[in-house]
Amino acid sequence: MKGIQKFLLVSGISVIAIGLLYGITPKIILEGIVGLSVEDNELHIFRAIMGLYCGIGGLLIASSFHKEHIRSALLLETVFLGGLAGGRVLSFVVDGNFHWFAMLATSVEIPLFIICAVLLKKQSNKTQQLSAAGAIQTV
Predict the structure, then answer these.
(1) Whole-model pTM?
(2) pLDDT per residue over 63-109, tens digit each?
(3) Are 7 and 123 in contact (CB under 8 A)?
(4) How many whole angstroms from its chain centre is CA 40?
(5) Which helix (H) or strand (E) holds 81?
(6) Which letter does DSSP use for residue 25 in this model?
């Protein structure tokens, strides 16, 4: 397993773990760590987030074992992390909310977003080089 595949595997496992934290015990996690009180009729929202995270994590894990899906997985993870970080930065600007957990999450999401973007760019360049080499051989 190459480095990029290991990165996707670890990312997928991490995303699933975070999703499970959101959905299995949202009251304990959100009230204990974030200080956000959640009513019983709002739990479905966090369980839906759990499902989304687990689905994305599962796709990242599956893609780590299939080289033909690495580029798609990197694109997915780049958009996912960029969306999370972008939403948090927007919240900081608009709401002025600087909760320690949000700051911690953002400080992890932005570097990972940059790493994914760089890996995606390298993967795209590699694909273009292979396509160009294949086109030259067929001519």
Answers:
(1) 0.83
(2) 999 999 999 999 999 999 999 999 999 999 999 878 888 899 999 99
(3) no
(4) 27
(5) helix 70-95
(6) S
